[in-house]
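Late entry, evening session. Most of the bench is empty. Finally got around to the prediction I had been postponing all week. Sequence below, unchanged from the version circulated by S.P.
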Amino acid sequence: MINFLKEKFFPDNRVNHYALSWVFLIMFFAGLIFSHALQSISMGLLAANVLINKDAKENLKFYFNDRVMVVLTFFLLTYLLSGFYSDDKKFWLEKVNLRLAFVVIPIGLVAMRGMSHKHFQWALYIFLWLIVVSSIIVLAKYFRNYEEINTSYSAGGTMETPYSHIRFSLMVCFCIFSGWFLYRGDFQPLFRGEKYFTLAATGFLVLFLHLLAVRSGLLAFYICALFVTLRSIYFGKKWKSGIAMIGVQILIPVVAYVVFPSVKSRVDYMQYDIKNYFNGADIRGLSDATRIYSIRTGIKIGQQNYWFGVGAGDLKNEAMKFYKDMPEMKDAYKLPHNQIIWEFASVGIIGLIIFWFASLFPFFYNRNYKDPLFLCLHIIIFSSYLTEATADDSNGNGLYLVFLCLIYFQLLKQRT
């Protein structure tokens, strides 16, 4: 075993940086699901592996000469500049630390830009099965406390997931389309017929996503499914199968509402929640109502600081001022549950324009949107912006950046 590891990672007494990148990448995948600490450590190790490297100069040259890599730094730049007018430097540093991922992760993955297509499929495959295993664990806990958890859904609760149920649902959604991509690509690395296990795993995740009943994940899933179907109709001229698939996509949520108690409870609670908000009732403890209020608060902050925002560091304090004037809302305090409003309130309309430029540039550059998996990744992330500040969460931006870079490097290879 020792000799095997030595040959893999230190052939001829030299460091195999590509092999080390794989170890750190798998650690990062596990960290995304199970551990913030592991995610941060592996992110640092990926970057160190690129910089402490005989090819460090070449790696950095690629990074600084690649337009997509450079544009991703804009996510960090607006927050850095807002430090000049942010009074709460502690909160500002917390936000800047989260945005550092937009520099560190792309740098850390530069060493893997030459990854073969088969190795890329392996990366998707490993992440797929990590999500499948973790989903099985979540389901086991759910069935062990079936009545209790279903009752909690009636009060806005959810299943216990490894981390945020919202970010976890986005990972599940991405793995559904990764699994479909692998199945269609006939990826069978270990044994004949393996692709059918991949297809079964993908189907399981579709069922699990509905049973989990997290709206962010479901919204992303149905938008992606619709786009993939329309793409198939347009490019493949498969009208009959495409229309049938759209019919299935309409039918699935109806069946899920009838069959899965978690889905029915979630929909019923959402109606109750929003009704209370618009009727002016006490909204403390209500998920959607407090989210809507937080978004309205963010809009007001942005309107009062239109051009440059209040600064990434002062968003929390400015939001608190609105809650101080409403003692009955003190227990319902939340920052804006919308990435667009969060950005507008933090760095103003100028920062918001830069944010959208940085978000859309990798998508449209060299027509990358033509790749179905790249398209699905962006739909998943962009749709989550409506209800979450995904770019300001380590799991959200970690999911986005690691697969954006891996897919982008594959697209670069196809063009050269």
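Two things to note before I forget:
Residues 117-144 form the longest helix (28 residues).
The chain has 20 helices and no strands.
Will write this up properly tomorrow.
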